[in-house]
Amino acid sequence: MRWRSAPRLRRSRRSEVRGAASSTSGSNPSRGPNSDNSRVATVRETVEIEAPIERVWAVVHEDFPNAGKWSSNLEKVEVLTDGPTRRGTELRYLLITPGGKQELEVEHTTVTPGKTVAGRFVKGPLKGDWKYSYSQREGRTRLTYTMDYGPNGFAARLFFGIIERQLPSDVAKTMRSLKKYVESGRGPRPPKAQSPADEIFLDLEDSVAPGAKVAARGQVVDSLRSYEFAGKVRVVRVNACDTRWCYEDIVTVVEGAGDRLDCLMIPKVEDVDHVHFVDNLLNQVEWKLGLERRIGLELQIESARGMENIHAIAGASRRAETLIFGPADFSASLKVPELTVGRLKPEYPGDYWHYFLARVVVAARANGLQPIDGPYAQIRDLDGLRTFAGRAAMLGFDGKWALNPAQVDVLNEVFAPKQEDFDKAVAIVEAYREATDVDQTGAVMLGEEMIDEASRKMAAVMVERGEAFGMTARPWSPASPAR
Questions:
Q1: How does pLDDT run across 119-165, given as a tens digit for each residue?
Q2: Are residues 288 and 351 in the same domain?
Q3: Which residues of 239-256 are buried (b: 16+ CB within 10 A; e: fewer)?
Q4: Do 167 and 83 share a structural domain?
Q5: What is the pLDDT of residues 58-112, one digit of tens each?
Q6: What is the CATH number of the domain that holds 165?
Q7: DSSP code of residue 476
Q8: What CATH code is carried by the domain that includes residue 300?
Q9: pTM
Q10: Quick check: 401 and 3 in contact, CB under 8 A?
Q11: Alpha-carbon distance 76 to 434, whole Å?
């Protein structure tokens, strides 16, 4: 997991439209997957809940101690075994029935986070299979519970007619109760990704070994679906377009959690063809899934060829939002004799990185993108990080990667305006507004300084940045003492 510090202005999202709940059920005597010569029935119930999947999932599949608060005829749930990734988990349900208390044990056979939990009955009055199926649209969760079941044991066979008549209404009641429980705000909430950074990206590229790439995709999807990112920009870095993993990275992540993803980060972009490939692939997957929100792109410049084509790359797709400088691979591409990522080079006469950073800023701004600087690998050298980040900020970068939470506070400090500068910027914008709207002049004196439209534009940039950091202006005047 990586962080990026400095606020980010996102395009407006389409507002969500709430819909009414729907519910269907039925009992259908038929042969199920675990059928033998005994009688088998099916019950199926669907409900729509005004909450995201991760909230419903947390209530149904994680908060077992409180399951009795919404589940009909349930006294308690015991976790007998907790299988890896929940698969193989065994639970014991203590049920209150007209015939007295009954124990029912189940096993999870399939767990696909955010999509499916399925299992089988292993002990108790019922045998057969059950399944929870999830889908989401515009913030609502559609949950379907299906059970193919039959009697297990002499007593269950004797009273199966009663069970078959009663069970559909019990399941319907439970689903309605679940809907009410979740929509009332009760139950657990998914854990939040706590960080003062404005963006968190999950990495499938350099931090994942080749043999672990496939498994990592599922972990990334699980993380996107399991965590509340508290308003942060959610990004996944896939493998480069010239690798064998890129295509499946994109398809798996977007199909698994596209509704929970803001951007894909594309590393080692060297030509517009790389951008067009990802853009077109995303078009296809988004159309297939019916996603209403377009996934953005963050493009990494990490080679001499990428730097040479940077202006064309930055303008290659309307999805592009950010241009990122990657110092490590870029140094290798130039065959620079260097072993540390993104360090200062005091032995170099001048700022070694200045030219490359300036090119990134110009290309980004010329195409309406955010320029972001890459990592500073010396985690404990916060003074060096502050110096390096300060130079990037002076050039016009909007932020810089953080490799460790300890770096985030330093970066937020560097990229946020100083309070006195923010106060002055607000004063300039207000003074110019009054001069043009009220006095009908094109320029005005603010203390000993003349301000005009160019001054207003410069001040507006600082005001926007300060407001993104949540700053509040204080009264300012040219006579204010230095603070």
A1: 998 888 888 899 999 987 766 899 999 999 888 887 767 777 777 78
A2: yes
A3: bbbeeebbeebbbbbbeb
A4: yes
A5: 899 888 888 888 987 888 888 887 654 455 678 888 888 766 788 889 988 888 8
A6: 3.30.530.20
A7: -
A8: 3.20.20.60
A9: 0.60
A10: yes
A11: 68
